[in-house]
Amino acid sequence: MSKKGGAGRVPGTDAAKHVARHGIEADVVDLPLSESSVAATINAYALTSGADLTVMGGFGHSRLREFVLGGVTRELSANTSGPLLLSH
Q1: Do residues 83 and 51 touch, judged by C-beta distance below 8 A?
Q2: Taking the model in full, what pTM does it have?
Q3: Residues 6+ apart with CB under 8 A from 57
Q4: What is the mean pLDDT of residues 30-34?
Q5: Are 27 and 50 contacting, i.e. CB atoms less than 8 angstroms apart?
Q6: Which of 41, 55, 66, 86 has its CA 20 to 30 A from that of 11?
């Protein structure tokens, strides 16, 4: 897990700065993918870090692709371990 700055910064950095101006503490982290799914990696980190809320962008793909490959948004929506805020 690393926090990046500058040109290679992690997406979400601008959003974290925005909510910080409104008194909300937010951490943006770049997680290495575990052997499980992306959604499971995010859920595990949320649990171990004691996160109060997970915020993510919700994106959709074609119905066929979602059916064959699944999707992080759908998997987190169905199996999240805590509060989840989706923004599109």
Answers
A1: no
A2: 0.67
A3: 86, 87, 88
A4: 81
A5: no
A6: 66
